[in-house]
Amino acid sequence: MKPIWIVDDDESIRWVLEKALARENLATRSFSNGRDALDELERSAPQVLVSDIRMPGESGLALLQTIKEKHPGLPVIIITAFSDLDSAVAAFQGGAFEYLAKPFDIDKAVELIRRALEESLRETNVEQALAETPEILGQAPAMQDVFRAIGRLSQSNVTVLITGESGSGKELVARALHKHSPRAAQPFIALNTAAIPKDLLESELFGHERGAFTGAQTTRRGRFEQAEGGTLFLDEIGDMPFDLQTRLLRVLSDGHFYRVGGHQPLKANVRVLAATHQNLEQRVRDGLFREDLYHRLNVIRLRLPSLRERREDIPLLTRHFLAQSAKQLGVEAKRMSEGAMQFLTNLELHGNVRQLENLCNWITVMAPGQTVEAKDLPRDLTQEKSLALTASIAPDEAATSAHPVESMKNGIDAVAERDASSSDQRAESWASLLETETAKRLSAGQAEVMTELARQFESILIKTALKHTNGRKNDAAVRLGIGRNTITRKLHELGIDAGKDD
User: Fold this and answer.
1) Alpha-helical segments (H) within 194-233
2) Is the C-alpha dihedral spanning 63, 65, 68, 69 positive or negative?
3) For position 125, what pLDDT does the model report?
4) Which of 106, 281, 340, 398 has the CB geometry, 3.0–4.6 Å to 374, for a possible disulfide?
């Protein structure tokens, strides 16, 4: 660990901080002016910098500005007088981690420096993690299993079926399999079969000859030809039209295909990776997916865990996405307070990693200040959390807790009271009703109980979301944490009257 730099023209302050930090076994290095610190910065850097704001020569603010240009992630604590409020504001605007007002309590100063030190070490660890695993981040045991599987499968030419919820990173896994394979120097071509209209999907996959259909004025190479020698990733394979599944099966069987309107067979030297968030076994039973194609694709199955199964990765991913977003916008990365990070870690985040990335982009642009608190997060998230906790509060009680944090507190109290209430009250909750309904169907010997109840559950969710968004599908999809293609498909599968596009 690098030393903590103390920059102050007051020798007594330097001495007090040096001794206090030495008692904490923290190494320090002191400078009597900003110029000496800037000169040393050309050769080395501190873990944390503590600087007076007013010194002869270079001011603390000028030092702060230079530090942020060369080492944007380095925490800087500014020492200022109680009366110098303008300087404190300027320090925060310049990216200071925090400020110490003179005269300061030495124990509080040490505590603040320790907080800055922990932040600095976290940033260092994140940078190292990004350098080592730039494609996919994850330290949870479930993700380590995925990494091991990628290592074993990357050198093989076997077809892999990647499963997992929407937004969990299935394409990233496919790209990693390609990048570490002998085909890495050849193309990686991705196609989302749910995003291409049915009439165009065949041409998109296999290409077409000139004059094959109206508008086909030239011969076009399809994705199989574009991926020659490399990898073709077919996302949302469960949505592929049934008649096209037959053509895909032939390519996987003997490696040959025809362009639309063509008569000359073409040979495909392509590794196929497929992904879906759907239950393909159920789609086979429903007659929506060919069983022989399913077995061709399901040679090796690689399941990606949802973000709810790897909550310990949320802080790592959050810091990565905040740094990535800040770099794209050319600004300093925001920092999450301990409370805000804990709040994020406890969220459901049904949109998984994609939802977290979008949230970090929002934070970078919209959150005030450099350190983000839970109250700075999007209102729909804080309200969602508070509503979940206040579900059993009477309307007049809920109305007294307008602030999300206070609503959460009251909600927790209400949940505790509910848990202590009678069994009759508990039976009225939706979870208890679901339990009762499940038990009744199982006792009656009904088949496919989970499939039927899940269908009803999804139907209720989507209808309610559409009602809240006045029929706007895209808005409803965002509120539910699912993709636009997913809600369109669900509307069709569940037979729900389609809402209007945003």
Assistant:
1) 198-206, 223-226
2) negative
3) 59
4) 340
> What distance in Å separates the CA atoms of residue 201 and residue 193, rounded to the nearest whole number?
7
Pick the CATH number of 423-494 from 3.90.170.10, 1.20.1270.20, 1.10.10.60, 1.10.3720.10: 1.10.10.60
96 to 87, 90, 202: CA distances (angstroms): 11, 9, 56
Q: Is the pLDDT of residue 164 over 50?
A: yes
pLDDT tier at 220 (50, 70, 90 boundaries)? confident
> Which residues lie below 8 Å from residue 382, measured CB to CB, with a gap of 6+?
374, 375, 404, 405
Cβ contact 15:106 at 8 Å: no
Distance separating alpha carbons of residues 48 and 119, to the nearest angstrom: 9
Q: Taking residues 362-366, report their average pLDDT.
A: 92
Bridge partners, 77 (sequence order)? 50, 98
Q: Alpha-carbon distance 333 to 72, whole Å?
A: 8
Q: Cα–Cα distance between 72 and 69 in angstroms, integer?
A: 6
Q: Which pLDDT belongs to residue 336?
A: 93
Same fold, 4-115 and 141-305: yes
User: What would the pLDDT profile of 2-36 be if each residue is shown by its tens digit?
Assistant: 899 999 988 999 999 999 999 989 999 999 988 88
Out of 58-72, 206-220, 401-415, pick the least confident: 401-415
Question: Three-state DSSP class for 285?
Answer: helix
Q: What is the C-alpha to C-alpha distance for residues 496 and 186, in angstroms, rounded to an integer?
A: 44
Higher pLDDT, 457 or 135: 457
Contact 349, 381 (CB under 8 A): no
Q: What is the DSSP letter of 218?
A: S
Q: How confident is the model at residue 312 (pLDDT cuts 50, 70, 90)?
A: very high
Contacts of 462 (CB under 8 A, 6+ apart): 476, 480, 487, 490, 491, 494, 496
- DSSP string covering 354-387: HHHHHHHHHHHHH--SSEEPGGGS-HHHHHHHHH
Terminal-residue alpha carbon distance, the chain:
52
Is the pTM higher than 0.90?
no
Reduce the DSSP state of residue 308 to 3 states and report it. helix
The 10s digit of each residue's pLDDT in 191-205 is 998 888 877 888 889
**Architecture per CATH, 4-115:** 3-Layer(aba) Sandwich (3.40)
The SS3 call for residue 98 is: strand
Three-state secondary structure of 429-457: CHHHHHHHHHHHHHHCCCCCHHHHHHHHH
SS3 394: coil
Residue 356 has pLDDT above 90, yes or no: yes
